[in-house]
Design brief:
Helix content is 31%, strand content 27%. With 407 residues, the protein is α/β, with parallel strands linked by helices. The chain has two domains: 237 residues, Alpha-Beta Complex (Spore Coat Polysaccharide Biosynthesis Protein SpsA, Chain A); 158 residues, 2-Layer Sandwich (60s Ribosomal Protein L30, Chain: A).
Length: 407
Amino acid sequence: MVSAAALIVAAGRGHRVGGPLPKQYRQLAGRAVLGHSVQRFATHPRIDRVRVVINPADRPLYDEALRESGNTADAALLAPVAGGETRQDSVRNGLESLAESPPDLVLIHDGARPLVSATVIDGALDALQGHDGALPALAVSDSLKQAAPGSSLVAGAVPREGLWRAQTPQGFRYHAILDAHRAAAGDNLTDDAAVAEQAGLAVALTPGDEDNLKITTEQDFARAERILATQGEREVVAAQAVETRIGMGFDVHRFGPGDHLMLGGVAVPHAQGVISHSDGDVVLHAIVDALLGAMAAGDIGTHFPPSDEAWRDAESTRFVAHALKLLAERGGRLSHVDVTVICQRPKIGPHRKTMLAQLAHVLGIDPTRISLKATTTERLGFTGRGEGIAAQAVATVRLPVDGSDDR
């Protein structure tokens, strides 16, 4: 699955609107402006992680803003990073901070645009399937006039055909925009689309939204309050239409001839293999059962019977892909997986980092959403005697409510 991160830029001082606080930390309908912006991305099902770029002096304001937002995030909210002298510097700092575990896609958003919709976010992500960049925008509909320099008199008309009002989030393939920002350091371009264009990247226009306003004036605060008032009831209904489910899975295999074990999609050297119809990956098998359990969709044997020769020596990643496909078809999303491997040998610690990276790839979620542990049974039972290996998994998913179980 494609991973996507949201980078929210909120390092500006924003005093032009007035008041003692930077505008991104002022209250809007009982929550800081920045809190609204973060929540819109953190609860979007296609965003894996969110990072905010802030002025280090504003860290107490940031912490308070996020506390006000409550525990509403599905995506991983990463620690904030420091901005730079200019917006362009701040964006580059934010992009660099994601380089250790890079996403496939990144959406760059102004923290002072608190009302971005899921539709605008989806439009940008969808456009990146065929383009280097995506720019939400609105066609200019008003007549445009030009004034003479230093005058308030009309000097002429400006053709509006082909003119668009740019918004954020502006979306890009991560490595392409990171390279573009590195190359443009010091140029102080107007926005990230301009950075991309200078690097020769193709940026597609996607549908913007009149409600996706940027807070700049006191009138903008009043307008945003009115918009939120009309959205409030719809948001409550939407929140009630999604539920969190937990599924549990367990798998065990007896040791047999071989020189390695498949664990979490990784070949781990061992003096023995396992006796299994497929590749015998207890970690992935447990995860599949946990996913199916969360959906009340049977178990791994129901979907892949061991009596069916089609699955002889099959890679367990195929089973995971099937379970994730079922989840996606129901409009669901995997939020978190917790796995425990139970064995005396092999030692999991030396392979944990590789396994975690492979699980993140197979499951299509950020590594911060995966807990991978190992334990022994103090030499008790079949695992303690070195006769086999086991794993248990718990999966947390978000599923739309179909109304069939309403009370």
